[in-house]
Write a structure and sequence with these properties.
Layout lengths: L11 H15 L4 H8 L3 H8 L7 H11 L3 H13 L4 H8 L4 E6 L10 H13 L5 H14 L10 E7 L1 H4 L5 H15 L4 E6 L13 E5 L5 E6 L4 E4 L2 H17 L3 H12 L4
Parallel strand pairs: 1-2, 2-3
Antiparallel strand pairs: 1-4, 4-5, 5-6
Helix pairs in contact: 2-3, 4-5, 7-8, 10-12
């Protein structure tokens, strides 16, 4: 294959490709030979080396398994964090260590509760709109999956989830995907460390929030909140600003349906009952 000059300083993706080429050439392998060793085609290796295709988490881990260490996965994570909303990587770091998580979502099931199929359907919709590439869609799904590890850690957090009714009324990915997602929500509600509530449409102006919000309580009882706009995320760590949000969240919980009624609403939707 013809080599394409690539400036490693032009982008993190270019630096990844240049590093991959250097390792291959030092060992005297062709792209086809290197690709065969890590489970990819020579064409795929060429696309990564020349920056035409971004590396994925799976690809990076395949390199690390073959070459040893974790350098490629670490480099991939640095690249990915650079493409996420400002503030989100920092938030996820705290989310993974929180003692309590309180979240409110509008329009879609929140990432911590999504099935892989639901997350993939959302990502595929973004691809069709031209908002992201197919490779980015794969990475966004993997991010959602990785975040859910917080729910299965040795001492999982208390997780309070209030979902606007639109989250369960909006069809995503077809009947099978929604049925599995409903089952996931019911399963979530049955856990000893979780509470699931639906904020019905008829709450009207009594709804405390109009946009998604998350409040974290850390092990030392410090508070922080996280919210997103279309272009950036904001992690607020000043208690003076977070306390009013926590108070509003408690008001939201008081007005929302209790968990028993919320689960029954989900079960009726599974049966096809409006």
């Amino acid at each position: 294959m013809n080599l394409k000059d690539l400036n490693p300083d032009s982008s993190p993706q270019a630096a990844f490709g240049a590093r991959l080429r250097r390792v291959r050439e030092e060992r005297g392998w062709t792209q086809e030979e290197f690709g065969e060793k890590v489970g990819y085609s020579g064409t795929h290796m060429s696309a990564i080396e020349t920056g035409r295709k971004p590396p994925t988490l799976r690809f990076s881990r395949s390199l690390d398994r073959f070459l040893g260490g974790d350098a490629y996965e670490r480099e991939w994570r640095e690249m990915r964090n650079g493409s996420l909303l400002e503030g989100f990587p920092e938030y996820v770091n705290y989310e993974g260590r929180a003692a309590e998580i309180r979240l409110y979502e509008v329009g879609v099931v929140p990432g911590l509760l999504q099935t892989p199929e639901y997350a993939a359907a959302l990502a595929e919709g973004d691809v069709r709109r031209g908002a992201i590439t197919p490779d980015q869609a794969d990475e966004f799904v993997s991010v959602a999956t990785e975040r859910q590890a917080v729910l299965t850690r040795k001492s999982p957090p208390l997780l309070f989830a209030v979902l606007d009714e639109s989250c369960i009324r909006r069809p995503v990915g077809g009947t099978a995907v929604m049925d599995a997602q409903f089952a996931r929500l019911v399963e979530f509600a049955e856990q000893p460390n979780t509470v699931l509530q639906i904020a019905p449409f008829d709450m009207g102006a009594r709804r405390a929030f109009t946009l998604p919000i998350t409040v974290l309580t850390m092990a030392d009882r410090s508070l922080m909140s996280y919210a997103e706009s279309a272009h950036r995320g904001h992690l607020e760590r000043e208690t003076t600003f977070v306390l009013p949000i926590l108070t509003a969240y408690h008001q939201l919980q008081a007005e929302a349906l209790p968990q028993t009624s919320s689960v029954e609403m989900i079960r009726q939707l599974r049966k096809g009952t409006p």
